[in-house]
Amino acid sequence: MAGAVEAKLAELGLALPDVVPPLASYQPAVQSGPYVYTSGQLPMVDGKLAVTGKVGAEVTPDEAKELAKTCALNALAAVKSVAGDLDRIARVVKVVGFVASATDFTGQPAVINGASELLGAVLGDKGVHARSAVGVAVLPLDAPVEVEVQVELTGA
């Protein structure tokens, strides 16, 4: 049975996807004490990237912002795979977003807002977090964006 967080996702017209299987030698998420750390999540939908390329060249900033939202959904799925229930999230502590950027693109923070805004819409005050938004030359599979999330869980 879905909890309050998944009900909020449904209210927003979203569904928690299946956990994206690892592309290499790592786990999608691990727990250490009360924290869950996700691996970098790509904007995979049904096992593939819908869009590839550099933001500011082949991918528009608006497209990339939507892709960052998809990354955040994938991160929530990875958190659930470890925590068992998204209602255990006490707060999102940190979000790190990587944007594969054209050499003159400087709008990384606006792109990663897609992830931050989704977490805020779904989790309310628990979704407010510290963040880094970093421009990089290339990401795995030529993905335009990658997001990792750290959350703190409640005890139960």
Verbal overview:
This protein has helices spanning 4-11, 61-83, 108-123, and strands at residues 29-32, 35-38, 44-45, 48-49, 89-100, 130-136, 145-153. It is α+β, with helices and mostly antiparallel strands. The strands form two sheets. Strands 1-2-7-5-6 form a five-stranded mixed β-sheet, covered by helices on one side. A two-stranded antiparallel sheet has the order 3-4. Strand 5 (89-100), helix 3 and strand 6 form a beta-alpha-beta unit. Helix 2 (61-83) packs across helix 3 (108-123). The longest helix is centred in the middle third of the chain and has 23 residues, at 61-83. It is globular. The two termini are 17 Å apart.
Write down the overall mean pLDDT.
Answer: 96
- Fraction in beta strands: 25-35%
> What is the strand arrangement across the widest sheet?
1-2-7-5-6
Number of strand segments: 7
Give the CA-based shape: globular
Q: Provide the gyration radius in Å.
A: 15 Å
Helix content: 25-40%
Major sheet description: 5 strands, mixed
What separation lies between the terminal Cα atoms?
17 Å
**Number of helical segments with 4 or more residues:** 3
Q: What structural category do the secondary elements indicate?
A: alpha+beta
The parts where pLDDT drops under 50 for at least 5 residues are none
The SSE string, one letter per element, is: HEEEEHEHEE
